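Appendix B, example 12.
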Amino acid sequence: MQRLLLSLTTLFACLLCASPLRAEVGVGAAPPAGAEMLIDGSREMLDEKWTYWQGPGFASSLPIKWKIVEDPVDEGTVLMSHDPVSAGGKYGTADIVTKKPYRDFRLHIEFLVSKPGGNSGVYLQNRFEIQVLDGDKTKHGMGAVINETESPYHAYNGAGKWNAYDILFRAARFEDGKMVQKPLVSMYFNGKKVHENVQINKVWGGPRSGVDGGNDGGAGITDSPQGLKLQSEGHDVRYRNTWIKEVTLADADTDFNE
């Protein structure tokens, strides 16, 4: 495990070094070669790349009711999270998930919380939440690997401004159907490293939260890739410039699979 943690650190360092693998971090970061754009502010990409997660609390219907709206800060259009059925914080009723599943990946996602208290969430593999929650500085708060770390609230730009998560995720590993290594995540928040090789122990929040949430209290993680999910909590949270690059993080060799 120690070798694995060191390798993951080395990979994130490589992402930032002057090499063909360079990928910038922070608001406005451009995708590196081989990355897939997921949100570009167009309705076409929303319909092409995303669908609803039809979990146990699902209450909406296709086509996706999330809206394409004007960027409140810069030029162009962005994606707004609010779906009418999720009003009042009814999580799991109208979350959207990528049609494509992912295992190990490098993710860049930009978000803007329109009003104080705004709530959404970024779910890695539709299981593990990186919280988007204005005003909360706890383990359930902004930028936390939910219930696993404290909130790195000091890195947050605040409501009404654009923020960026740059995430490196290594999926759980299995042998003979049993999990032998738990998932790991490292993250930059607005260009500041805030999480390094955080081990994620379970799917928090129950079955309405994400895939495997209902298995053994969330500890029963299964060996399957899943999509990136964004949460609708009945708030106006906006997303733009979101891209992902699949990588292969082997036990002792963390080079990209170009």
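The mean pLDDT is 90. The longest strand covers residues 237-246.
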